[in-house]
Amino acid sequence: MKLNYLFPNKYKKIGWLILIPSAIIGMITLVLDLEPNYLDFNVPAIFINDAFGDKGVVGNVKNNVLNEILGVLILLSSLLVAFSKEKLEDEYISKIRLESLVWAVYFNYAILLILFLFVFELSFLWVMIFNMFTILLFFIIRFNWQISKLKRSISYEE
């Protein structure tokens, strides 16, 4: 079965090399609330709303771009890790990939449903921000866990 929607296997390594440091730096900046001044830039923006109530549709805004850089790196590297072929990609791996993706979507939305009911106001914004990353994260964890179980069972049978 030919899978045209997957990246070549070599991109998985590149994805991991970008994902791990980006996630670590992202968590550190989140926990310590770090925003270095040298990353403050005037950037184009849509739907501007500053603290004084001035609104605009399109314009420029001064913003620290660290969060945007880390978010883009985490999203792109997660896509590379999640959707790169395995060294030996067969129908069973495809089945595991599909099941893991479906499981990740169900699990993610079950958590989101619970959080919809119990988290409010500005905290809910954080829930939605993290929700952008969690489907891919849950998929990567479940898929790799299933693949490692498969490899253990194969080595056990030998």
UniProtKB/TrEMBL annotation:
Keyword Transmembrane set for record: yes
Domain of life, source organism: Bacteria
Record keywords, A-Z: Membrane, Transmembrane, Transmembrane helix
Transmembrane segments: 14-32, 65-84, 96-118, 124-145
Name the UniProt record assigns to this protein: Uncharacterized protein
